[in-house]
C-alpha cells in the first residue's frame, strides 16, 4: 500500500478533538480549573487597568487646568488688585490669592462647647480672595461667599466647609463662631472638592486678614496665587503669570505641583495589584496542576486505547502529540471561559463604580493564549508518559 | 501451495525477572496464505507471548521471524511500527474499541494512523463494517452495542487496511456460543488466499473451525492437523 505511513498533524489534532469533545463532562471540569486561574489573572489586570484609567482621567483633568504659584518669602504681600494682571492673561479662567495658616485645634472654636459635636477636628484657617473660590471650583451649598466689599470693610465674616460646619456646630448661615478668640459670622457653607486637602475642614476669611497680618509671628504664611486655566493651558500660563505678577524676578515665584493624587493612589494600587497578580498566579499554577493530574489519570485509564493505537501503527510521537494537543485544547477552552468570566466581572465592577471600562484587546487575546500555554505545558509530562506505554502489556485482557 | 505469510524459527522469549520467566523456548511455526490456524494451550503456556512476537508488539530474545519472506527480527522500533500498520490486523478478547469514537471512526483508526487520505477512509471503513454485517450501526458508540457486535466492529477494524496477517487473542473469550459462531464464520471467510489467520483459543468450537491447530506447551509448539 502506498500510504504516507504516518499520522498527519491534522489527524493528531482531530483525534485529540474527538477525545476532548467525546469526554465532555470530564473535559469541562478540567478546563474549569485552568479557567479559574485565567479568570483571576485577566480580572486582576482588567480591573486594575480600568481603575487606574478612571483615576488618571479625573486627575489629568484637574492637573491640566490648575496652577498654584507661591509668593516669594521676604517680599511684601501683594495687594488684591495684583490678581488682575493674571486674570487678563489668555487661557486664564479664574485666579485669586489665598493664604494658609498652620492647622491648630484651638484657632477656630464653637460659640459654646455644647454646640460642637465632640469630635475634635483640626480646623484649617485660610484667607482668600472671592475669585479664588472660582479658581478652586467651589460654590456655596448654603448662604453665600463674601465679596471684595466684605474684605475692604474688614467685616468679621467667614465661610466654612461642610466638615468644619459639622465640627463647629454650624447648622445654618448667620451663626457665630470664634476665630482666634474673636467672634465671626459664618455667612456661607461650601463642600470641599474631593482631594482638595487645603479646603477640607477649613474656615476661610477675606484675603485682607492675610494682607494686614502684622503680628510678630504672622498667623498666615506667604500668599499663593491659585489659577484655573483652560484645558492644557496650565504650563503656558505658569510662565506668563510669573512675569505679570513679579516682573522684577519672575523666577522667584515657585510653582506648586498640586498634591499628586495619582502617584499616591498608584503606589497603593501597585501593591494591591502585585498581591492580586500573585494570587492569580497561584490559582493558575493550581489549574495547571489540575490539568496535568487529570491528563495523567486519563493516560493511565486509557492505556488500552494507547496500546491499541500503537499496535495499529501510531508512532510514539503521534500518541504524545494527541495527548499534548488534548491538554492544550482543554487549556484553551479554560482560557476562553476564564476570559469571558473575567471581562464580565471587570465590566460589573466598572459599572458599579461608574468607571469608563478600559479593556486592553491584548488581554482579550491573551487570556485564551495563556490558557493554551498553561494547558500545553501541563500536558507535557502526561504526553511523554503516554508515549512510553508498551502496547503488549496494555492490551492484555482486562 | 501458497507462500508462507509467516515463518517463525526457534523463537524464545525470556522475561528478565526476578523471577526470570522463560515464556517461549525454541518455538517454531509457519502459516501459509489462506490458512486459519488455532493456537491452544494451558493458561500461562506462552500463547499471548507468541502472538505478541508474531504481531511485532514484542521482540524475541532469540530466533528468527519472517513476514512475507522478509526478516523482521532486526527491525528498529519505527520500522516495526510501520510493518505492523501495513501488514497486521489485531483482534483482542476485550475488543479494545475506543469508547468516545463511533463505529466508523473506530474502524477508520488504522487508516488514520497510516496516513491514508481522508477521502477514502470513510468508504473503506463503511465497507469493512458492511463486511461484518454492521452497515446499519455506523454512527453508534461501542458502549451501545452488544458484545458480539463490538467484536465484529473490532474485526472490521482489523481488516480495514487489508492486512496479510490477522492475529486474534481469544476473540471469542467474551462471547456466547451463538456470537462465537458468527465471529468464527467471519474469520474463516477472512482467511482468503494471501491472508493468514492465527487464533489463540481455549474453545473447542474455535479449534474445530480452524484448518489445523498448534499446541503451546511450556513455551514450545507442537503442530496438529484438524480432524
Ligand atoms: N511482561 C511480562 N513480564 C514477566 N512475565 C510475563 C510477562 N508477560 C507474560 N509473562 C509470563 O509469561 C508466561 C506466559 O504468559 P502468556 O501471557 O503468554 O500466557 P498465555 O498462554 O497467553 O496464558 P492465558 O491463556 O492465561 O492467556 C506466564 O508465566 C506469564 O506470567
Ligand atoms: Mg493469553
UniProtKB/TrEMBL annotation, chain A:
Pfam families: FtsX (PF02687), MacB_PCD (PF12704). It is found in: Cell membrane. Residues 27-238 form the MacB-like periplasmic core domain. It is a multi-pass membrane protein. InterPro entries: ABC3_permease_C, MacB_PCD, Macrolide_Exporter_MacB. Its main location: membrane. The chain crosses the membrane at residues 274-300, 329-351, 363-384. Residues 279-391 form the ABC3 transporter permease C-terminal domain. GO terms for molecular function: transmembrane transporter activity. GO terms for cellular component: plasma membrane. Coiled coil: none annotated. Keywords: Cell membrane, Membrane, Transmembrane, Transmembrane helix. Belongs to the ABC-4 integral membrane protein family. PANTHER family: ABC TRANSPORTER PERMEASE YTRF, MEMBRANE COMPONENT OF TRANSPORTER-RELATED. This is ABC transporter permease. It comes from Catellatospora coxensis.
UniProtKB/TrEMBL annotation, chain B:
GO terms for cellular component: membrane protein complex; plasma membrane. Keywords: ATP-binding, Nucleotide-binding, Transport. GO terms for molecular function: ATP binding; ATP hydrolysis activity; transmembrane transporter activity. Residues 6-227 form the ABC transporter domain. CDD domains: ABC_MJ0796_LolCDE_FtsE. PANTHER family: ABC TRANSPORTER ATP-BINDING PROTEIN YTRE (PTHR24220:SF648), IMPORT ATP-BINDING PROTEIN (PTHR24220). This is Peptide ABC transporter ATP-binding protein. It comes from Catellatospora coxensis.
